[in-house]
Queue: 2 jobs
Job 1
Amino acid sequence: MEKKFYLTTPIYYPSANFHIGHCYTTIIADAIARYKRLCGYDVFYLTGSDEHGQKIQKKAEEAGVTPQKYVDDIVSNAKDLWERLNISYDKFIRTTDSEHVICVQKIFEKLYKQGDIYKDEYKGLYCTPCESFWTESQLVDGKCPDCGRDVSEVSEEAYFFKLSKYQDKLVKFYEDNPNFIKPDSRKNEMINNFIKPGLEDLCVSRTSFDWGVPVTFDDNHVVYVWLDALTNYISALGYLSADDSLFKKYWPCDLHIVGKEIVRFHTIIWPIILMALDLPLPKQVFGHGWLVIDGGKISKSLGNYKDPREYIDTYGVDAVRYFVLREVPFGNDGNFSEEALITRTNGDLANILGNLVNRTIGMANKYFDGVIENRNVKEEVDDKLISEALELRNKVDNYMANNEVSKALEAIIDLFRSSNKYIDETMPWVLAKDASKKDRLATVLYNLIETIRIGSVLLQAFLPDTSAKIFHQINTDLTSFDSITEFGGYVSATKVNEAEVLFKRIEN
Ligand code: ME8
């Protein structure tokens, strides 16, 4: 059977001001998507934008344009940023796409007809910026528990979705599928904070604004944002459309990666919607932490914001990707600072990786005019490096199975660190002075190039540009996973290209 992997990020609220925190989910998901492709999976990586709701309508009014014009103008900002970051998504869904709108409408009708959606009066507390309803007991000091801003009391006719009906089934699903919510701490949070107090039915329509998916059988109502937004994961695959081949192929989702503040929507509301539709549930929802600055969330309203493109322009795309992927233990919060970005770039990328490739290619050109033969003059010191290189794939595989991207990357850099140590131990410049050591010198350089190749095959998932540059410098097209199961794949007597600097040291 063909191995498939369906992976999603949340769909982002359109904004002209994405910050480095927004890039976090997308870069992590990109590394996972690329890694799975390397492993031979047929991957479908979905991202997109979440364009309806009162907040957008207000912003469009302020800008004096229609909401559609407003979102059309700024959605390109996300696409541009993802391109700059080398995000290899397979589809970008917009909730204003007509296929999505029709799918949401069909689902709403279906759930209404089967009695899971009913009409009632909504009285409650609403946070406009977060587009969330809260109960009195959920407020913190009388304010929105997510953003700390004021909430307002609203009362209007609305449709409700019977979450409560599915509560027991959901708990049973959690019990039967211990990997559904990861990390485990997030699962306990869901059970203790939301499920144990009892699930309340969810308001799924609004009448106080009209920028949303219209309810087909009741003119005054538009679908309230979470039912609309979550449905993107199946509408993007053509669910309930004339062509649902992608849906048949890729559903259920293998991994939804989401920020911790929206885990509850993805692990309570989403599975219940799917249960009501009688569809299989996602295999896993992974709730990652935030990138913070000085302990606080990065946001324009807090004033600690910088356009990520500035970092890309200054330090290069792979320095930014590396920092995000390496610095934060997946699941926890991590601190972002430009200083830390510089330290990581100088330490791991310039001093360890860049230096290794540069020295090795430099010596190959200097001592052998770039043509490195494996002359097989072995010494004991080689064994350690070779076995480390051969173990790397397994190590990385084990970490990636748990989405431990940071540890996987650390293991790769460790191999490059060991390679630098191997240079110090074998001292090629000393061997070069002794004509009788020529074959040993060639073997040392061959071992180094082969180790660099093996590390770079794995590095492709994380830093695709850098790996491509390394493959060019060592002049190889052996870049597949299958090519690193044995040591010695690099073709003996290949002529390497000129050394080029991969990462310049940044003066702070
Ligand atoms: O939540 N650090 O959209 P969004 C890490 N439209 N991740 C961060 C972050 C930070 N500082 N700031 C934001 C939404 N994110 C909804 C989703 S899905 C059906 C609907 C992450 O634009 C955040 O955690 O507010 C989320 O995963 C993603 O950016 C999009 O956030």
Note: Residues 337-495 form a domain with the Isoleucyl-tRNA Synthetase; Domain 1 fold (CATH 1.10.730.10).
Job 2
Amino acid sequence: MNGVSLIQFLIHEQRKTPLAKGGFTLLLNDIASACKAISHAVHRGALAGNLGLAGSENIQGEVQKQLDVITNQIFIKALEWTGHVAALASEENDEIIQIPSAYPKGKYLVCFDPLDGSSNVDLNMSVGTIFSILRAPEGVATPSTEDFLQAGVNQVCAGFCIYGPSTIMVLTTGNGVNGFTLDGDIGEFILTHPNLRIPPDTAEFAINMSNQRFWEEPVRRYVNECVKGVDGGREKNFNMRWIAAMVAEVYRILTRGGIFMYPYDTKDPGKEGKLRLMYEANPMSFIIEQAGGASSTGRQRILHIPPKSIHQRVPVILGSKNEVERIVNYHR
Ligand code: AFP
């Protein structure tokens, strides 16, 4: 199916489910439209006066960039009027976002991080948008926060769009992982990376080494072994990368394998991890598992975590299966 557009691909998939009415296909098309608009805003950068700080903080206590605010608005505006969404939850908003009464509501809940890796934006490095789609409980007209608190295994779709040298959207609906490159000339995402698969073994790891002294022993042991390479217990030398944008780390792992870790650390004892379960860990874990990789906190499969709040943070270790399993074993 090489050379087909995202919408052609989605309609082809929809036809495999004879009872499908097309709402889900249209929702994904709306998300693609939001990502095209975000791609445009990111790539216009300083020309549109989009760089720098917004002068505000989000619910996580993080200083917002102008583009955090702009992209959040783009995503909400692209989805709220369509009739396919019951409610939204954004990394940038304290509370869930209800659909204005002027618009019809759909049956899906959408969680999203409009601009992952936003500290990269002023450096002209890769950033992205991450999204996760859940079903609203049957018969619920106005979803509550609790309706969003579903384990990652309940996701019907997860994806991300990376704004790098090319704009690429990666998607799973639970039937493998596919990548689509935005063709700016025709304004369409085109299937360029069908059936992405992660090799089970790797010699590349990604972790913020500046946190080393705060890690727990299993992660310390694993990274020490990688650094020692053939001179330690491992039979190969390892390479390291850190891009500070999860979208870019996960895209690299989907392309050539690897392992990404933002593990539990004691830097801020009040936090269970750095990355957000609903907006980062769950969608990325769904994608990674669908591509043949694995994802864990070190102690638990991420997709099995029952969420306690929409802004919950968790430790994340994901990527090539055999390496993730090795670290999980070290935790045992
Ligand atoms: P933002 O979305 O707030 O920029 O955070 C990005 C991120 O959550 C994730 O994408 C990176 O892997 C990680 O933070 C980078 O963290 P460091 O600041 O420790 O490098």
Note: The chain has two domains: 6-193, 204-331.
